[in-house]
TrEMBL record, chain A:
The keyword Cell division does not apply. The chain crosses the membrane at residues 32-49, 95-115, 136-161, 167-190, 197-216, 248-269, 305-322, 353-374, 403-426, 432-456, 463-481, 506-527. This is ABC transporter permease. It comes from Streptomyces spinosisporus. Keywords: Membrane, Transmembrane, Transmembrane helix.
TrEMBL record, chain B:
This is ABC transporter ATP-binding protein. Pfam families: ABC_tran, DrrA1-3_C. Belongs to the ABC transporter superfamily. It comes from Streptomyces spinosisporus. It is a peripheral membrane protein. Keywords: Antibiotic resistance, ATP-binding, Nucleotide-binding, Transport.
Amino acid sequence: MTAASFAVRSGGTRQLAGTATLLRFALRRDRVMIPVWVAVDALMVLSMPNTLKGLYGTQAQRDDLLHQMTTNSSLRALVGPVFDDSLGALTAWRVGVYAGALAAVMSLLVVVRHTRDEEESGRQELVSSGMVGRRAPLTAGLLAAAVANGVLALLVAGGMASHGGTGAVALGLGIAGVGMVFATMTAIVAQLTESARLARGLTAAVLGAAFVLRAAGDSATDDGSSVLTWLSPIGWLENLRPYAGERWWVLLLFVAAALIQGAIAYELAGRRDLGMSFLPTRPGPATGSLGTAGALAWRLQRGGVLGWSVGFFLAGVVYGGLTDGAADLVGDNDNAREIFERMGGKSGITDSFLASMVGMLGLVAALYVVASVLRLHGEETSGRAEPLLANAVSRMRWAAGHLTVAFGGSVLIMLLAGLGFAASYGKEVGPVMGACLVQVAAIWVIGGAAVLLYGVAPRLAPAAWGVAGAVLLIGWVGPALDVPQAVLDVSPFGHLPKLPGGSMQWPPVLVLLALAVVLTAAGLAGLRRRDMTT
Amino acid sequence: MTKAISVSGLHKSFGRTHALDGLDLEVETGEVHGFLGPNGAGKSTTIRVLLGLLRADAGAAQVLGRDPWKDAVEVHRRIAYVPGDVTLWRNLSGGEVIDLYGRLRGGLDAARRAELIERFELDPTKKGRTYSKGNRQKVALVAAFASDVDLLILDEPTSGLDPLMEEVFQRCVEEERERGRTVLLSSHILSEVEELCDRVSIIRKGQTVESGSLADLRHLTRTSVSAELAGAPNGLAHLPGVHDLDVQGKRVRLQVDTDKLDAVLRQLSESGVRSLTSTPPTLEELFLRHYQEEAPQGAEVASR
């Protein structure tokens, strides 16, 4: 090859040099993570038609469902409008939005992992000193996400084909589309901040906002035509209308958004220095007031606690605002009115709506407690714990600092969710607060399990995410899937009294609290005895 | 004199790897003790045991007269530790970390803190990730030297410092010695060890192979001699302790065990010495000799 032809060749592609190698490397590193995410997401969709057949087997049941969804804005806010009554359409309605959200979470994790995480850890520096173009790591990260979303789309389209090929393709592409919109959005956010943790948090906040926008839009209209719905990429999936007269042009929205966001990320990635960001780090104080391990733990986690607090308060406000609408159902539907009046008057439907919303927030709070407990693990593996523990700080003190934030923070965010309900719903303040606090018992059990894993088997500590994920899946889709009771009983949330509305039962709550204490104590005993890993 | 650190027969395994295999270490109070060995010899493992971060499988360890595992917090109150690879919290400034570490030890001397920041030319307002490797080490070093403690454990503390800062570091260690503090210094920079250390311990494959003052250790090694003689040399090859003898006409080069030097000189002067250079063993030679013995197995341990 002559020097001139080499120059021409490298001139066009040098920014992407090494992408193929990096992609193979990324897929190798994610050989467990991506398949698990894809499998869980696909299974969630593919198991749905059978379940729905059981729930809405007769035409009368389906008519009733359609009627409810058209007339009840609160229910629409939760699960979106129904566009048709075929099994395919019902599946797309029931899980499409959640499957898209899962794909978004997977994509954001994959992209951050191969871009900002690598830079923050310093590993990228070594990699980029090789024959690796400036934009190759970002390209490889996005391609890894594209591969994951592509496989997911294929699985969904293939698995749903028996209910109608066209709809199956639309659903698969829509889910993958949401994934790719968030993959490219993550790519932008990863350019803006130096911290991988912050990049994940910010993108997750955007995802949460997309969820809320869709919910608000769907509560306003019964056909997904609200501007708010169209502002949310998750709403696009709904408006693609798989199995209900597919509107293929909506796919162009996904493509356009992904392309525009990708282009912005590329532009940013090509301009900035390695490891640097567009949100510069400001200098800090020359002297500090931190004097204890507990104060340090709070300082390190307070940003996270603040984010979760705001999120939970807003979620409380949104769901509290929908509560009154939930009772409308009773006014519109004679059958339902009879049922709910028998169950305990008009407050019955409101209370069960409140109970399910509070329960859902409790499940999400399990993610908070796991993230917070695992800060211990992060501090240890990063090497920051070692010099800290070489000071006059016992391991128990050190752990106690982070665990106080984890367990105390769970109480705080549930209280704030309750305040949110109180602010927008305004009735039953006491019972709703109580319901929020009762969730803490189950949240703490998950936290205790994380402490146990970390203390006894630090290498398995990340499995605590699996515990929280399993509990979430059981809580969200378990009841609808006719899963055996034994499986449902695994989740501590299944044992909580149904509040408000139900009667407070102390025994299960106290048992859960005791279990949380035992798990935590066992984990701490393990931590006290074992070697610190470095 | 009491012992600041006293370790005997220390064993520690990670799975099938024996990181420490009966290691001994004695550090007198008030001395600067060099802790040397090839990569993977077990230096950092030993230090982590001394800090109570790892529990020894067997053997006895005492730090400042206490058990580092059971009395970790009490021991740590009087210890300052600087790891070789300092990681800081991204959102905490260097100054905040220095003060935190000071408070978590026996306390911080504010005047000394200010003076050290000046001498190390450290900007304490920068935040965690924006520091270079050398500057992260300076943060830990300032925190250690400004703390009110009796024992400093420094694990390759200068690997990222420039020569100027290396100079400042050495001055600081000397000041610590003058104040009567004890320093355990693990280092690969031999000039630094030679400059600072009263005594050294050399370990290999988890065992102590040599311990003593540098003068003692030198005595155990070879001196290089090269001489130009009036006549042809004779009898040198039969002298005990002579190695690598190279005779070219009237010129002689050889290595001799330092305690056998006298006999060699006498033999040389019999042939009439025109010129003579005698080079004492450098520290490098001293260590290379220890490091290289049984190199293949050493490499295996190092690759762990």
